Amino acid sequence: MNITLYDVSVWVLPLVIAITFHEAAHGFVAHRLGDNTAFELGRVSFNPLKHIDPFGTLMLPAILLLSHSPFLFGYAKPVPVNFRALRNPRTGMVWVALAGPATNIALAFFAAAAFHVLTYVPAGAEQWLADNLKNAVVINVILAVFNMLPIPPLDGGRVAVGLLPNVLAAPLSRLEPYGMLILIGILIVLPLAGSQFGLNLDVISAIVRTSTGFVIRLLLLVTGNA
User: Fold this and answer.
1) Which of 35, 92, 147, 220 has the fewest CB atoms within 10 Å distance of its CB?
2) pLDDT in tens, 9-35
3) pLDDT at position 68, please?
4) What does the DSSP 8-state code read for residue 187?
5) Is the Cβ–Cβ distance between 154 and 179 less than 8 Å?
6) Contact in structure between 74 and 56 (CB atoms under 8 Å)
7) pLDDT of 47-69, one tens digit each?
8) Cα-Cα end-to-end distance for the chain
9) What is the predicted pLDDT for the residue at 194?
10) 101 with 108: CB under 8 angstroms?
11) CB atoms within 10 A of CB 224
12) pLDDT value of position 6
């Protein structure tokens, strides 16, 4: 796989912006709802260095990309939130969790809408900007859809814990310490194991791809690009 400097230039910028705004949104909403943990630690910030995890954001995706993994996976430094400090811990947790994916959908919307300004951009920069905008739509929608999977510590898992009755929420919340291992298992290990026996066990990736495609088509339609 030949990755050029141009490829890096049109993927890194939208990726860094998507991750930075996603994490900052969590901290901002938590601050507004009564928890100052992230604010006091300087994590309510648009400085990407505050949110990038050297392994999860850079090394892991690169390793998976170079090893032709069936699914690219990575993560940023989680914004620390003390849910007990929120004025209403249960509903507050839902709003804090939704803030990240909602911000990514908003960024994807603005990137899609910005396609209409390409005709005003100098010819030499038009293709580069178009590729950045296209990748911004894709990255932000994937980040939003993936994070809404109902598996703690993903945002969707925390939303589920906040909305489900206690009899279901309690056992789901106890999965959080093992969430990363569960994700790696179902996204990477299971599909690779299935391929050894001629089985397609890449179910979660298929769900994410289908959902991502639907959301992108909807955004393009709403912004007049369809």
Assistant:
1) 220
2) 888 888 889 989 999 999 999 999 999
3) 63
4) I
5) yes
6) yes
7) 888 888 887 777 777 776 666 65
8) 31
9) 84
10) no
11) 10
12) 82
pLDDT of residue 42: 87
Using a 10 angstrom Cβ sphere, with 0-12 exposed, 13-18 middle and 19 or more buried, the burial of residue 170 is: exposed
Going from N- to C-terminal start, the domains of the chain cover 5-222
Indicate the residue type of 58: L
Rounded to an integer, what distance in angstroms lies between the CA atom of residue 152 and that of residue 145? 14
* Active-site annotation, residues: 23
Distance CA 166, CA 97 (A): 18
Structure tokens at 181: 């291992």
pLDDT of residue 50: 86
Q: How many CB atoms lie within 10 A of CB 71?
A: 18
Dihedral over Cα of 53, 56, 59, 62: its sign: negative
Output the six-digit token pair for 225: 């690009």
If we measure between CA atoms, which residue out of 164, 143, 5, 165 comes closest to residue 76? 143
Rounded to 5°, angle at Cα 55 from 152 and 57: 70
Q: Which positions of the chain have pLDDT values less than 70?
A: 1-3, 64-74
* Cβ atoms 10, 135 nearer than 8 A: yes
Q: How far apart are CA 30 and CA 10, in angstroms?
A: 32
pTM above 0.85, yes or no: yes
Q: How does DSSP assign 47-111, residue by residue?
A: -GGGT--IIIIIIHHHHHHHTT-SS-----PPPP--GGGSSSHHHHHHHHHHHHHHHHHHHHHHH
CA gap 26, 44 in Å, rounded: 8
